[in-house]
Amino acid sequence: MFTYDDQPDDEDHDPTEDFEGPPVAGPTQDELEHFAPFLAEDYKDFKVDFIDYLNDVGKEPDANKGYSRQTVKGTHYRIEQVFRWLWDEEKEYTSDLTPEQATELVRFVHNRTPHPDSVAYHYVKSIRRLFDYYRDRRREHIEEWEHDVDLTNTNSAKSNHQKDRLHPTEFRDIYQAALEHSSVKSYNNKTMGPEEREQLKIFVSRRLGVPKDEIGPEEFKKASSWKIPSLIAVTCDTGLRPIEVKRAKVDWFNLDRQKMIIPKDQSSKNSERWRCALQNRAVSALRKWLDERSSMEKYQGTDALWLTKYGEGYDSHSLNPILQDLMEKAEIDQRGRDLSWYSIRHGVATVWAEDKGIYKAKNQMRHKSIETTLRYTRNSGDTLTKEVNSIW
């Protein structure tokens, strides 16, 4: 249910533009289907008002100063997860969170992640912003909230490379889930009954942002896309960082040579030009995505490889929910692990370092220092000679 992102909020950066993403995330819309339609509308109204508050005045109400776009986005997605947890706990709808429930939520997050001082801390800050909203906009009397959960990180010495990782077999499962999630049956598929077609109409309506009564055969075709499968496949080969997903350009990829080539001035560290290997599966998915992309109006005039449905570049806050959704569909066992988009990178780095050799791993993962790559080894001494097709 939860995604754990310990990327810091950018509270001190004045926003240049407000966050304008969907007020209700896809997984939350799915949960709201268990309640009466008017309750779903109530929740949407609440979220629109809450996001407006964060954008406009949330940081300093008296000075009409809002939070940065990054902070609003992070708060928005965490609060979405808070309410999904709350509805599951209480077995009923509400848009109110009490201090007691907030403490239980923090305890739940603390027990689910090995990084409580970073992950749970961000949930605490997001909940405090929600309580500020209750006070300022709803005029509710809520005393300053203090929880009693010890957020001391017992793994504080644990380096970034030690974060929970995904494994090669899970790469395959996640990619399979991406294929299934991204493809829609033909509208006139003879195996599909009226009930299934109605459910798919709802799904297509949400994906395309088109009213349900306007959905027909052509919309069913448009709803299938190679965007997410290509993104997952390339990341499982190269361990793309969120910033690299955002910066990825069409001309980074030489598909005939099965290479991703990042120019020095576009690399995340601006350190050197990187040449990374792609396996057959990723090349095939990318070819299909590039063909599809070429006919999409959204991509006219831009060389960005992947954009959200709102025409924005991806970041950790938009990538983590995608991964979480795919892991749930693939039935990945997340118990005891703190999994985020970076978990793919940590898994890829570990496989390359242990199975392919340190220097190949350094290049594939775009590490500036060999010492960084060495952290992904367990000193197993094993050296395998299989190439990239054997990784997942």
From TrEMBL:
Domain of life of the organism encoding this protein: Archaea
Any single GO BP term: DNA recombination
Pfam families: Phage_integrase (PF00589)
InterPro entries the record matches: CB, DNA_brk_join_enz, Integrase-like_cat_sf, Integrase_catalytic, Integrase_recombinase_N, Tyrosine_recombinase_XerCD
Gene3D superfamilies the UniProt entry points to: 1.10.150.130, Intergrase catalytic core (1.10.443.10)
Transmembrane segments: none
Region ranges (Disordered): 1-31
Biased composition annotated in UniProt, kind: Acidic residues: 1-20
Family annotation (CDD domains): DNA_BRE_C
Protein's name according to its UniProt entry: Site-specific integrase
Higher taxonomy: Archaea, Methanobacteriati, Methanobacteriota, Stenosarchaea group, Halobacteria
